[in-house]
């Protein structure tokens, strides 16, 4: 009897010891021990920083709730051909399978077009932010659609828009189908954006991504988006990986022809490309004053075959003959949101006097090339850089237009002497030295959208 009691006591102690050990192993217990002290000399490990978690994620795909890109690539490749080894090439859109007709003649010379993901893309794109209602006039649907036809007839058959540009996607829908539709619309390409919410806790899953893309498709009266440019606000929230995975699924479902980025900096663009995201383009600000892309973006995009679609090239209209010899405006007199956006950049770059020196120099270079405009020279300067697929020039559709003038961009080239004259102004010290001053204030491309 005594032996049996001792055996029972021994088993009881064993169970107690093993249960306690298991409990101590749980994270809940570890947290409790961290708060009250573990009773031994182990130093509790410090919580891991976002940077460390991010590095782990890239190595092992271990960030909570985030789909590793490798898993997406594997899922999409095996979906195409079950049982076959994973090959990132399988998930790339094959532009040769479906290529726009490049032999067809348009109003502009051949060099005005480039190939972007199999699409015939005009190197001057019509920017549609200007129809959002914040650019000093109220757009009217009939006039906008008529003007879109005029632009396409003049050879400018590529449009840049976004889900957040007010009625822009709806205007494209009216232009392509229905009573106001235009016969030239079938030759046009429309590049829209998905600008996600700006909350630090933004979560993206299939439902969220599909709803965003379906909305654009419905408004634009389209079965498939030509180019979806993805904008993300906060790189410390890794949900942009989930967004990219969902876009890749939507691409396989033929709802999106090509995927691009919008305002991504070089580091995060490389990160996504090295994880096999099939990125064809990045939309960034690029002008004689904002030369941030030259530091990292242009060399990396050149190496990786990504094309830059550039905005801000005319600083909302400041880099034109209209402002030559004019005094600096007061910000509150400007009714056009683009001009309000870029006026502070002129100050950062070196101020109004230095800007006027630049306008005079560009005017003189334009005269040397047969009287082309300041806008032409400023556009040409961006277009002549490597990796630049196009410059997006804002159009106040139904209010002002510059088709005839902008067509002259393809009538000349800036030579070494012109480039040296422009560089001489950029590098003078009028309070800033070239776009490098914007780099130091905002950081790499898109940094101005990420300063909290
Ligand atoms: N992803 C982004 O964060 C982002 C940000 C901004 C813009 N964008 C895109 O880029 C587009 C361009 O917008 P932006 O604000 O940068 O404006 P912008 O293209 O620098 O300036 C547009 C203005 O320049 C004037 N202009 C155009 N051609 C001209 C010419 N040949 N001669 C004289 N003036 C001329 C027009 O002014 P008038 O109408 O006064 O004649 C036009 O409204 C937007 O529509 C949008 O698609 C994207």
Explain what the structure shows:
Helices cover 41% and strands 12% of the residues. The protein is α/β, with parallel strands linked by helices. The protein has a single domain, classed as Alpha-Beta Barrel (TIM Barrel). The strands form two sheets. It has an eight-stranded parallel barrel, surrounded by five helices. A two-stranded antiparallel sheet has the order 1-2. The chain is globular. The site of NADP nicotinamide-adenine-dinucleotide phosphate (NAP) has 27 residues, from strand 10 and helix 14. The site of NADP nicotinamide-adenine-dinucleotide phosphate has 27 residues, from strand 10 and helix 14.
Task: Write a concise keyword list for the protein shown above.
41% helix; 452 residues; two-stranded antiparallel sheet; 8-stranded parallel beta barrel; TIM Barrel; 12% strand; alpha/beta; 10 strands; binds NADP nicotinamide-adenine-dinucleotide phosphate; globular
List the helices and strands and how they pair.
Layout: H1 2-25, H2 27-36, H3 50-60, H4 69-80, E1 113-116, E2 119-122, E3 124-127, H5 141-153, E4 158-160, H6 168-176, E5 189-195, H7 206-219, E6 225-231, H8 239-252, E7 256-262, H9 266-274, E8 279-285, H10 297-304, E9 307-311, H11 337-349, H12 352-368, H13 374-383, E10 388-394, H14 403-407, H15 416-426, H16 436-442
Parallel strand pairs: 3-4, 3-10, 4-5, 5-6, 6-7, 7-8, 8-9, 9-10
Antiparallel strand pairs: 1-2
Helix pairs in contact: 4-8, 5-6, 12-13, 12-15
The structure holds NADP nicotinamide-adenine-dinucleotide phosphate (NAP).
């Amino acid at each position: 009897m005594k032996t049996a009691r001792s055996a029972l006591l021994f088993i009881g102690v064993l169970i107690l010891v093993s249960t306690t050990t298991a409990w101590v192993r749980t994270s809940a217990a570890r947290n409790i021990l961290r708060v009250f002290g573990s009773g031994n000399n182990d130093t509790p490990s410090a919580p891991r920083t976002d940077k460390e978690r991010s590095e782990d994620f890239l190595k092992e795909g271990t960030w909570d709730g985030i789909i590793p890109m490798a898993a997406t690539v594997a899922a999409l490749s095996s979906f195409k051909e079950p049982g076959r080894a994973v090959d990132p090439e399988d998930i790339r859109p094959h532009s040769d399978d479906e290529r726009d007709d490049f032999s067809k003649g348009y109003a502009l010379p051949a060099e005005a077009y480039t190939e972007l993901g199999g699409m015939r893309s005009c190197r001057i794109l019509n920017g549609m932010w200007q129809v959002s209602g914040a650019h000093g006039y109220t757009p009217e649907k009939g006039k906008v659609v008529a003007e879109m036809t005029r632009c396409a007839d003049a050879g400018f058959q590529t449009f840049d828009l976004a889900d957040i540009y007010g009625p822009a996607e709806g205007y494209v829908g009216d232009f392509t189908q229905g009573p106001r539709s235009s016969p030239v619309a079938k030759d046009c390409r429309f590049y829209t954006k998905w600008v996600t919410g700006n909350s630090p806790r933004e979560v993206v899953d299939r439902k969220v991504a599909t709803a965003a893309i379906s909305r654009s498709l419905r408004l634009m009266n389209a079965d498939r988006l030509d180019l979806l440019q993805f904008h993300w606000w906060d790189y410390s929230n890794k949900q942009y990986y989930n967004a990219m995975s969902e876009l890749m699924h939507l691409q396989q479902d033929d709802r999106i022809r090509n995927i691009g980025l919008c305002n991504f900096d070089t580091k995060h663009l490389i990160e996504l490309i090295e994880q096999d995201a099939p990125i064809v383009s990045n939309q960034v600000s690029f002008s004689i004053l904002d030369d941030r892309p030259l530091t990292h973006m242009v060399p990396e995009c050149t190496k990786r075959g990504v094309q830059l679609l550039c905005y801000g090239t005319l600083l909302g209209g400041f880099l034109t003959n209209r402002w030559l010899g004019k005094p600096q405006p007061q910000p509150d007199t400007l009714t056009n949101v683009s001009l309000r956006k870029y006026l502070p950049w002129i100050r950062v770059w070196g101020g109004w006097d230095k800007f006027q020196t630049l306008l005079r120099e560009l005017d003189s270079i334009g005269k040397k090339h047969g009287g082309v405009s300041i806008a032409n020279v400023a556009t040409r300067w961006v277009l002549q850089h490597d990796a630049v697929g196009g410059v997006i020039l804002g159009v106040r559709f139904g209010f002002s237009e510059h088709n005839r003038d902008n067509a002259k961009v393809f009538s000349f080239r800036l030579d070494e002497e012109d480039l040296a004259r422009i560089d001489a102004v950029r590098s003078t010290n009028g309070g800033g030295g070239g776009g490098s001053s914007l780099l130091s204030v905002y950081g790499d491309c898109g940094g101005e959208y990420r300063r909290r």
